[in-house]
Design brief:
six-stranded mixed beta sheet, DNA-binding, elongated, DNA binding, about 25% strand, Type I restriction modification DNA specificity domain-containing protein, alpha+beta, Restrct_endonuc_typeI_TRD, restriction system, 2 domains, four-stranded antiparallel beta sheet, Adenine-n6-DNA-methyltransferase TaqI, Chain A, domain 2
């Protein structure tokens, strides 16, 4: 069914970046190790519309022109190359993989002579005692269609998960949302003493050596920027729980996060800030206030000059104002709209990925008569 040949040895020092794919003995990435300028090398061996088989017995179909390394075997169809296209190549390669799976390793490598002379058979569909290439086309098309359907269902599920996690029914901006964004151009800011805005408390102190990581479902916080300052989820003495729906500040690092749930803290230098005004106690208001805290005072603190309960009470936070008072309602509304925009970007990115994959599957750049 196939002519069997091999690649050639070219030292890595001679390989320069180019446009020709090079097939190696690796068992992933279709065997491709990169793209190089082998086109004009006399000792490079190039093939197109072929199946490569490495010395482990791993087979890959290649519709493009590629150079091939030594110890990689090349199978080219003995009959007309027009019988071979992407779908048929994938089908046949999968049958070769099935036939050779588990037979070869470093100690017992597949050689070209074994491929030519060994008793290796693959099962292929036939019709009227001839290979049924059209069956392969239809079979792969059906697999692709089923896979795309699965991906689209997963994509819809992913979209719904984004919206549920965000507390949204959809991510489309309303007329009110656009007005909120437009109003930002005219916003005025004023400074307010921290003590006027917040109740400030130190957290408790539960050392990491005293906990069992991942022993429960309560967040255990540290002063890290990663994972919203959550180091682990633990079970511990409930009397040491800190009340959530607050701003958490890592005392030594000035990492500022919103904590929706009750939590445990690793260090008594850490701070909890609770907004005094009820309008400022929503999740989105807190997130907006955190941005204002960073802009207002983050430049003052460092590892060598860390924030403390006493120091922060002398600070001033600049916030949007209405009638000379903090406009917590606008902060909430603005962050809510920004949240929608972020979710919209995530969804559109996922949709672009889905469309690109769908296009790659349904139009590989080859027609049914062979390689274009």
């Amino acid at each position: 069914m196939f002519y069997v040949s091999t690649g050639s040895l070219i030292s890595s020092g001679r390989l320069k970046p180019g446009k020709i794919k090079r097939v190696s003995a690796k068992s992933d990435q279709n065997g491709i190790i990169g793209e190089f300028d082998t086109e004009f090398m006399d000792d490079a061996r190039h093939y197109e519309n072929f199946i490569s088989v490495n010395f482990f017995g791993d087979a890959f179909y290649h519709p493009y022109c590629a150079s091939v390394e030594m110890k990689v075997h090349v199978l080219t169809l003995k009959s007309s190359k027009s019988d071979f296209n992407a779908k048929r190549g994938l089908y046949v390669a999968s049958m070769i993989n099935k036939a050779l799976k588990g037979r070869f390793n470093y100690g017992q490598q597949l050689s070209s002579s074994k491929l030519r002379d060994g008793e290796y058979f693959i099962s292929l569909p036939v019709k009227n005692n001839e290979i049924d290439w059209f069956f392969m086309d239809n079979y792969i098309e059906e697999l692709e269609a089923a896979h795309i359907e699965e991906l689209e269902a997963a994509h819809i599920e992913e979209l719904e998960a984004y919206l549920i996690a965000a507390g949204l029914s959809d991510y489309q901006l309303t007329e009110k949302d656009y007005l909120i964004l437009e109003h930002f151009k005219n916003i005025e800011f004023s400074g307010f003493p921290v003590t006027e805005l917040f109740s400030v408390c130190n957290t408790g102190n539960i050392l990491s050596r005293d906990i069992i990581e991942n022993s429960g479902d309560v967040p255990y916080l540290c002063a890290s920027r990663d994972n919203n300052s959550v180091s682990s989820y633990i079970a511990y003495d409930d009397s040491l729980l800190e009340k959530g729906n607050c701003i958490f500040i890592g005392g030594k690092t000035f990492v500022v996060t919103y904590q929706e749930r009750d939590f445990f803290s690793n260090d008594s230098h850490n701070l909890r800030l609770y907004v005094n005004n009820e309008d400022g106690r929503t999740k989105f208001a807190y997130l907006g206030i955190i941005s204002c805290i960073y802009r207002s005072i983050s430049h003052k603190y460092s590892w060598g000059d860390s924030v403390s309960n006493r120091k922060i009470k002398d600070d001033v936070i600049w916030l949007p104002v209405k009638n000379k008072s903090p406009d917590f309602c606008y902060i909430n509304d603005l962050i809510s709209v920004v949240h929608k925009l972020v979710i919209k970007d995530v969804v559109q990115y996922a949709e672009r990925k889905m469309n690109a994959y769908r296009q790659a599957i349904t139009s590989r750049g080859y027609d049914d008569s062979g390689v274009s």
